[in-house]
Amino acid sequence: MIRVVLPAHLRILAKAPAEVQLDVQAPATLASVLDALEARYPMLGGTIRDHTTKQRRAFLRFFACSEDISHEPPDAPLPAPVASGAEPLLVIGAIAGG
After folding, report:
1. In this structure, which topology does domain 2-93 adopt according to CATH?
2. pLDDT at 54
3. For residue 29, what is the DSSP state?
């Protein structure tokens, strides 16, 4: 089981709790977690990553074990504490401004 924490704007859109629990087959990767998340909450399709390219949207970041994994390959295995459910995968809305 993977735990995913969503930002408020995506929770409201999906009508989801703050923390979502997903069953993902090993090895758990960012791509497989996002596939499972979009399968459970179809309204999130296209909001976290582009429909066609599957690239992360510009103002979203992913954190695992206090590390920014936004620029890691989507098929790289997630850290063991995240894959086991001990730690959550955080989806964070980035803040822009000057």
Report:
1. Ubiquitin-like (UB roll) (3.10.20)
2. 85
3. B
